[in-house]
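Researcher: Structure for this, please.
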Amino acid sequence: MTRLADPRDCPGAGRRASAQLPKSLSLRLVPIIAGLAGLALTAGLVVHFGAAAVARSLLAVGWLGFAAVCLIQLALIAVMGIAWRALLPETRSWILMWGRLVRDSVAEVLPLSQVGGYVAGARAVVFAGLTGTAAAASTIVDVTLEFVAQLAYTAIALLLLIYLKPDAGLALPAGIGLVVAAVLAALFLIVQRHGFNLLERFARVLGHGWAERTASGAAALHTALAGIYARKTGLFTSFSLHLACWISSTLEVWLALRIAGSPLSFAPVLAIEGLLYAIRTAAFAIPNAVGVQEAGYVLLGATFGLTPEMALALSLLKRARDFTIGLPALAVWQLVESNRLWQRVARR
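Model: Predicted structure, token format:
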């Protein structure tokens, strides 16, 4: 009979195991610490520029302005769901609109990374009837096209910044960041088109067990991705709708500023919003870009004459919008998940 190995038989094994736990724990603590630092930065900015002044700016937008901002956001989510459906034309629109709502709600309300939102959105559409492979493949392509559309949106914002404020010091770092992001997007596209071939070869070399299952899953996902990328009209439609949504999202801030009595023309607002979302993307490791969004609004707003208290009010307005839309959506999603779990338990 073979005796099971005892950790005490291996010198240093206990130390290695104990070292792994703190390392894993520290990785989990990074987003928590980053989020807390972001909250502290937000609070510090509000206190520094005056909580009363920020509150007055929020009240100037009023409930009517806030309701308009929420309605615009809901319309954009619906269109982004249609952009997702362009990749899966045989799927009913409401399924992918619902998946998009869950994706955005998880990403903006829960203290998770954007990846958490992608996974939740894919789960939501699977529960609504899509296969896991179709949900995963279409999510990957949809996220990619949305990111490429965001790069185009940021490029437009950067050109507007250079045109409207040629002496702005933000142009150079923004341009460098845009080039780096474009390279990363190109690499991500290459991996999607060719990377799974490498995974399949590696799995075949390993040969048995988990490797075969990995190869099978990778092959199915690769086939689904290839099928989506073969529909050029769907790709172009999805990209165009995403770009239209990015540009149309500028309406929220533009309208809020007009209602608050601090109007800016559409072009400066687009420059602010386009560069702000680029900053948010760069700060992906910080949950909900807490603190980063607020500091970005203050910095970019000052370039176009926006007062710091109004810039902070806009950021807080968007946070309130996300919670107003996201919390009910998450409650419904959890009810759906719970009901499915109880049904599985009852069948056993």
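Researcher: Any notable elements?
Model: Confidence is low (pLDDT under 50) at residues 1-11, 13-21, 202-208. DSSP finds twelve helices and no strands in the chain.
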